[in-house]
Amino acid sequence: MADHLPMIWPLESHTLAKHMILQNYLRAWLPIMGSSNRRLLFIDGYAGPGVYNNGEDGSPVIVVKEAMDYISTCATKGWTKPEIVCLFIEQDAARFASLTETLGKIEIPSQIKVNPIHSSFEETASKILSFLDAKSFSLAPAFIFVDPFGYNLPFSLITRLMNYPKCEVFINLMYAFVNRFINRSGQEEVMTRLFGGEEWRGLDLKDNSPSDRWLQIHDLYQRQLQKHAAKYVRSFTMRDARNVPLYFLFYGTNHKIGLEKMKTAMWRVDKGGSYAFSDATDPSQLVFFGNGPDYKKLKSLIVEKFSGRAATIEEIEDFVLCETPFLPTQFKREILKPMETNQELYVLTSSRKRKGTFPSDTVLQFAEV
Ligand SMILES: C[S@@+](CC[C@H](N)C(=O)[O-])C[C@H]1O[C@@H](n2cnc3c(N)ncnc32)[C@H](O)[C@@H]1O
């Protein structure tokens, strides 16, 4: 699918929000994975020209700068430096030239291997996978950013990549285009490739309100990812200046720690925890949603789950992380402590020294409601 943008284009607020999530996440991912692996891999499958109209950084430059910061922290702290391999794939010749020129201006330390590739994501990823299969090699811990303009993205590639245990994906599902073309004749094959099966044909999109449509398309992609690619999936919605969904960012991982770090990265961008950003918030400058977490909601979720039951802190933490939009740092002081004061729960066992604290060996009994 051809795009109609010039070689480089203006940075929009939603793109800046996307970059902030990427950057926040890499700041957590690099030290966690770097401390126990000799090599890390970052693939930017749709790298772009590396720069925006006013000289702002594109995703490959953001990645390289984060990697450089991490390598320099390793040097300062005396940590072993991993090798960080970056594959930046760009299909368009002019954008690829801009990308290599932009990257060429950065003095990159030797631990960071930067490989711009003038090709398509589909072709390069398939080649890498075939090579790994043929040699029975595994993949180094990998973060794969899939950020196309359109929706010509094979789901089968995502599932094949996610078969490698330490692989994570961050996918931009271009909802606005999918929504426009999903019922158009001639698009059937592309939709089946995108959703990894025929399930999209069962969506009941006719006569639906716009919010119903986006929810159905969003939820189908999420279900497919959870069924075929990743144990944990979290998404973030980008809306345009009319507050209409433009695209969804889907993060998929098989590790709870990754989920926690990505949720934290997303909360930093949307402090209300609705996992959304809208250009309508303020078209001239980046102002994030900012009403703070809805603790009433978190309390009701915890009470609904644990009412009348005994539960360990680990169980509650797991529930908050994996089954709610909230973070595991948000429930002890804000929810459990006041609940204990109000006798809505009791501590059964704990090694704690002070009331209102809940170390990991604590077991709680929730009152029946
Ligand atoms: C949304 S832009 C990427 C923006 C970039 N990730 C960033 O955040 O700065 C998508 C890019 O993918 C390129 N592209 C389109 N089809 C591609 C394909 N099949 N494989 C790789 N790159 C492709 C386009 O030329 C465009 O530069």
Search tags:
binds S-adenosylmethionine; globular; alpha/beta; 369 residues; Rossmann fold; 3-stranded antiparallel beta sheet
Structural class: alpha/beta
Shape: globular
Instruction: Average the pLDDT over all residues and give the rounded result.
Output: 94
CATH class type of the largest domain: Alpha Beta
Bound ions, cofactors and other small molecules, one mention each:
S-adenosylmethionine
* Cα-based radius of gyration, to the nearest Å: 22 Å
Share of residues in strands: 15-25%
Fill in the CATH topology of the largest domain. Answer: Rossmann fold
Distance between the termini: 55 Å
Describe how the helices and strands are arranged:
Elements: H1 13-34, E1 39-44, H2 59-77, E2 83-90, H3 93-104, E3 112-118, H4 121-135, E4 142-146, H5 155-162, E5 167-173, H6 175-181, H7 188-195, H8 210-228, E6 232-239, E7 245-253, H9 256-269, E8 276-278, H10 295-306, E9 310-312, H11 313-323, H12 332-341, E10 345-349, E11 363-366
Bound molecules: S-adenosylmethionine.
Brief overview, please?
It contains 12 helices and 11 strands. The protein is an alpha/beta fold. Helix 1 runs parallel beside helix 2.
Would you kindly provide a written description of the structure presented here, covering whatever features stand out?
With 369 residues, the chain is of the alpha/beta class. The chain has 2 domains: 269 residues, Rossmann fold; 72 residues. Helices cover 43% and strands 18% of the residues. The protein contains 12 helices and 11 strands. An 8-stranded mixed β-sheet has the order 3-2-1-4-5-7-6-8, sandwiched between helices. Strands 9-11-10 form a 3-stranded antiparallel β-sheet. Helix 1 packs parallel to helix 2 and helix 1 packs antiparallel against helix 9. About 2% of the residues have low confidence. Bound molecules: S-adenosylmethionine. S-adenosylmethionine binds next to strand 2 and helix 4.
